[in-house]
Amino acid sequence: MKVIIVGAHGEAKELINRISSGWSISVVDIDQDKLRNFTTNRQIEKIQGDGTSALVLRKAGLDQATAVVTLTVDDEVNLEILKIAKQSNILRLSSVINHSVNLNKYKEMDVEVVEPNILLARRFEHILEPRRVVSQAFAGGRAEAIEIEISSDSPVRGKTLREIGSDYYIVGALLRKGKVIIPHGDTEIETGDLVTIVLQSGAFSNVINLFSGSESRFPLEFGKDVFVILENENNLKNLSESEFYIRNTKATSLQLLTKEDLFENNLETTQETLKAVLKDQEFNTTYKSKISNKDIDKFMNDNSVGTIFYPIEETTSRAKIRYMLNIASKTNTPILFSRSTYPYKTIGLLINSNFDENSSNSIAFDLASAMSANLVAININQPKFLQQDNEKQLAGTLEKLQDLALSHEVQLDIETHEGNEAKIFSEQTSKFDLSIVSSSATQTWQGRKIVEFVSKNSKCSVLYIPG
User: Fold this and answer.
1) Separation between Cα atoms, residue 431 and residue 376, nearest integer Å
2) Does 111 map to a domain?
3) How confident is the model at residue 440 (pLDDT cuts 50, 70, 90)?
4) Sheet of 253-259: strands edge to edge?
5) Do 31 and 84 belong to one domain?
6) Half-sphere exposure of residue 415, counting CA atoms within 13 Å on the CB side?
7) How far apart, in whole angstroms, are the C-alpha atoms of residue 325 and residue 154?
8) Residue closest to 414 by CA, chosen among 426, 400, 427
């Protein structure tokens, strides 16, 4: 994601040194000498020019930007820059405010403002009356206290303080379901905990990565096995994709349900052929003379399945796809309709407003992070005359996606289209190696039809996350 910072000041340098590596950064300043002497501990793009010029801002990457920060000493300059950014539909606008009389002008543009005078006053108040003030910075600026909410994919979730102990930070308190806990070595950190951490200032980024970073868990929340269904010889090409999938997720075993006479020629046994394809990958095989829906149901009931892996061919009927989707929804198990479009370098996501732990949005970032893939989130609006007033909800959804991209350090692109959701997303899948979809939490008829259409007509493999 990209941020444009206007004003090559000390505040800009400190901000750049602290924000996530997921940001691509451009710094704009009209003073060439100041820009030349502006150095940071990471790679940035420097643009010399007037920030109130739309041409200069576009040169800095305005068309790709997610956020704009203005740090000039002139409020009128800041407001003009922010006006241009807002016209370009930038979601995150923030600025230093030089004179409080201009506060309403910033608020009218929905700009997040920082008032330096208030920050200075708080620091001096801490010096004069230290017992009255709870501050993030102390020990002469050499230490900080921060609060972090533990997410479901945090690397420390489920671990005790003894397991994550360090010399450069301590966990001072936990707020869990409204109750304050003073932790000890055996205290286990849980999802939703608000953790207060005291740390050395130089350890800021390490602590942030440890507590609020992401750790791949998919598909263990659903089950440990990847369950592959092989109904004919043509499915053999899909077997390598299942091997790639299990090696790049947290699944622990590969389970094959296959016909006994899978191959027309009998030069080698089915088991020998499977071993040759899967090479060093261990797997278990269940043979059937003919694979029935009853066999699939029984396998799902008897095993811990994290993902169903079903090869798709041009001749695969809608009825079969509908049945497999019903199995996935009934057992709450993701299903991957395989088209052998691996490795997954670009993942496409049909976005929705569900950000629960096992939602398609959350899992898309888990997979993109684990596989070092780029993620393209597709938002499809209905035609104007059918749209409801949901702009605020959409803005909130996009902001949450950007937050997930930062915490997972995933390259995220967001595209917006208008028209038929199923048809447009299916057309877009030609750009992806894997598409991720989910029907709505209410399992509406329309949601099921969209998933069914995409699963049938996608140009790449499709991962369906139920509910």
Assistant:
1) 9
2) yes
3) low
4) 284-288, 253-259, 225-230, 305-311, 335-338, 461-464, 434-437, 346-350, 374-381, 412-418
5) yes
6) 16
7) 30
8) 400
CB burial of residue 118 (10 Å; 0-12, 13-18, 19+): exposed
Among 285, 304, 338, the domain-final residue is 338
Q: Name the token pair of 296.
A: 């699939």
- Check whether residue 205 and residue 239 sit in a common domain: no
Statement to judge: residues 460 and 377 lie in one domain: yes
Instruction: Among 154-158, 169-173, 233-237, name the most confident range.
Output: 169-173
How far is Cα 316 from Cα 310, in angstroms, rounded to an integer?
11
Question: What is the C-alpha separation between 51 and 100, in angstroms, rounded?
Answer: 22
Q: Do both 90 and 140 map to the same domain?
A: no
Instruction: Give the domain-ending residue among 120, 155, 190.
Output: 120
Q: Which residues pair with 138 in a beta bridge?
A: 143
pLDDT at 265: 64
pLDDT digits (tens, 9 = 90+) for 251-274: 999 999 998 877 766 666 778 888
Per the structure, the count of domains in the chain is 4
Give 312-352 pLDDT, tens digit per residue: 998 899 999 999 999 999 999 999 999 999 999 999 999 88
CATH of the domain at 429: 3.40.50.620
| Same-domain check for residues 375 and 328 | no
| Full-model pTM | 0.72
Query: Is residue 451 included in any domain, yes or no?
Result: yes
Domain range for 61: 2-120
pLDDT higher than threshold 50 for residue 131? no
Res 457 pLDDT > 80: yes
Residues 245, 326 within the same domain: yes
Segment 266-292 shows an average pLDDT of 84
Identify the CA nearest to 143 among candidates 95, 198, 196, 180: 198
Same domain, 157 and 189: yes
Alpha-carbon distance of 270 to 287, in angstroms, equals 10
Question: Is residue 33 predicted with pLDDT exceeding 70?
Answer: yes
The least confident of 99-103, 167-171, 289-293, 446-450 is 446-450
Q: Are 185 and 216 in contact (CB under 8 A)?
A: no
Taking residue 76's Cβ as centre, other Cβ atoms within 10 Å add up to 13
Taking the CA of residue 418 as centre, how many other CA atoms within 13 Å lie in the half-sphere pointing to its CB? 5
Same domain for 197 and 250, yes or no, is no
Domain membership flag for residue 131: no
